[in-house]
UniProtKB/TrEMBL annotation:
The active site is at 93, 166. Belongs to the catalase family. Its cofactor is heme. Occurs in almost all aerobically respiring organisms and serves to protect cells from the toxic effects of hydrogen peroxide. InterPro entries: Catalase (IPR018028), Catalase_AS (IPR024708), Catalase_clade2 (IPR024712), Catalase_clade2_helical (IPR043156), Catalase_core (IPR011614), Catalase_haem_BS (IPR002226), Catalase_immune_responsive (IPR010582), Catalase_large_C (IPR041399). This is Catalase. It is an enzyme of class 1 (oxidoreductase). Keywords: Heme, Hydrogen peroxide, Iron, Metal-binding, Oxidoreductase, Peroxidase, Peroxisome. GO terms for molecular function: catalase activity; heme binding; metal ion binding. Heme binds at residue 380.
Amino acid sequence: MASSVVGGIHKAQEVIRAAAGQDKKSADLSQDTADVNAKLKLTTDHGVKISDTDHWLKLANEKTSGPSLLEDQIAREKVHRFDHERIPERVVHARGTGAFGTFTLKEAIPELTHAGVLTDTARKTPVFVRFSTVQGSRGSADTVRDVRGFAVKFYTDEGNWDIVGNNIPVFFIQDAIKFPDFVHAVKPEPHNEVPQGQTAHNNFWDFSFLHEESTHMFMWAMSDRAIPRSFRMMQGFGVNTFSLVNKEGKRHLVKFHWIPHLGVHSLVWDEALKIGGQDPDFHRKDLMEAIDNKAYPKWDFAIQVIPEEKQNDFEFDPLDATKIWPEELVPLRVIGELELNRNVDEFFPQTEQVAFCTSHIVPGVDFSNDPLLQGRNFSYFDTQISRLGINWEELPINRPVCPVMNHNRDGAMRHRITKGTVNYWPNRFDSVPPATVEEGGFKSYPEEVTGIKARTQGPKFREHHNQAQLFYNSLSDYEKQHVAKAFSFELDHCDDPFVYQRMVLRIAEIDLTLAQKVSVSVGAPTPEKAGRQNHGKKARGLSQLDFTPKKPTIESRRIAIIIGDGFDPVAFNGVYAGVKAAGALPFVIGTKRQPIFADGVDPQTGKGVTPEHQYDGMRSTMFDATFIPGGSHIKTLAKNGQIRHWISESFGHLKAIGATGEAVELVNRVLRDVDGLKFAAQGTGVVESYGVVTAAGPQKPESFKEGWKMVQNATDFLGKF
Ligand code: HDE
């Protein structure tokens, strides 16, 4: 029977896995993985060895190479295959990157669900996670202002479970039928396909004004949340309301959260803009770099739970995806941990072909009547058909690690072969009946529903301002300042006064002071009266500052160390070693990429330091902090406009700057020019609010200690941001 074939495949996987110490998904993928380094001879796709892959077959003579011949099946195959390499990019979230990892359950919740993945703490469930931006095309820049996707596929023993979330807990619309309008409005405009990777255009803000329900979400999108420092430093949210069902059949509504161990950190806008040009792959590379360096990013997995019978007890509707469940009302419970620990082997078959579906749940998890979720459950499956074809679930990255058996058949690119003479159920042979609930069969929650068919929405779905104000009120002063600047940038890019003028009025419904500030920058009449009184309430968990790790860390942060010939080797070596010991990544930036020699080292006989980069190849924006050791090289560095710019730009982006010995005066001089500031020129000091740490004390043996102390100060400082 067919099932024994599938069973056989699984047996084979078990054997491979056991032999290689791999998790189930890695073993599964290894069956389809070739290795370009295996030193095999090139072949055609039908397996024939190729003797020449560089020259098309031609009718040549001694004088000329002559016409190319169509009969060259090898050249034709090569070019045909190439012609068809592209598939449609995702209609939203086209730009993204992914990694493999492990989900570990820390606390079983059998009282809430019978899902194996949430009740068995002995399991390690393999996962694949894809992070993305929303608006831009596949080749757009990583650091644009946008919502980030945070999609997790759990390969559980009971089938795949996808939590297809974002880094912002709410959404722009409440009903899935609005999604095409919303996406059309946010994407580049139809007449000129502009702008790319930005919401800074008339159509987006026109839509936002016309949909009051977007108000809460666009406040988040204008906050620092929309310009994360790293995928590793952002929260994830399931956004929609799902449900958990326990063995007794009791149901709770649930929201899913991912909380990064490194804290929630953002770029500043100027940095994000510059990195967009300097390194459009910044986030993609950051994730790969961290995993390569074994600084595996981790998130706590938390749930918020509302018993079914309490769902009407709140002033908001828990099924409305434009609302959060404030922590004060529905506490977060951390029950698991996600770790990303393996980069993909090849981008296309893994990160590009991975396909998520909100409708992919496992027994013990169920949906809710959240109208956004219900539409999503239709859309994701459908979109995969146009992107990947009907057999997309057979692709290696998408197939589950448990047996698959059913009578779905055929379709383009069918891969699985099922033996047997029947393809229907029941049949005249020993047909296996569907699984009972006890055997793990999925049973939809038997919810009792009565109602009248109507195109409508629940009454509490009509309130749109309370939580937008709650969010804004909960931000720190500097986060609020960033929101004002973000609106100023976005609305400044709208050239239709109708759009930006009425948006200012909408902002005045959230906060008058904010609207007044924005009106000045964007050229709208300054509102004198709040469109609606601000209720002044705040909640926990909305400001990024609420997620500062208890123990600040610079683990996996990128630290630039700038040197030229004549640097102080003691300070250099001390800080380099200190940065490494703290788990951060030191990058030596030189005045050249050839070996650089320390003070007192003879270039003919001594050993130099070969920098990772020359300053032309990098900018301060690529690093979290900069250190400049003292030494006679400062004479050269001080004359270099780019180095001086590096220091002032770092400072402007609120980054820690360290300097010892002669470098202190250089930093002092540059920052005095920038901001009239003067930093501790003596001893070791950290100017807390500015993050500049200098140690001008003795330079020889003791300065290692000085340098180390400085790294610690900088660590404490940096860890707060
Ligand atoms: Fe999506 N969304 N979405 N979305 N979404 C897609 O599916 C859709 C929504 C999210 O890394 C598409 O495979 C509808 C909310 C992520 O591959 C598509 C609605 C949230 C990803 C689709 C929403 C998301 C997608 C396009 C409103 C946060 C990328 C390609 C009802 C919880 C997944 C694809 C990946 C992708 C539809 C709203 C997150 C068209 C109809 C809310 C992270 O199916």
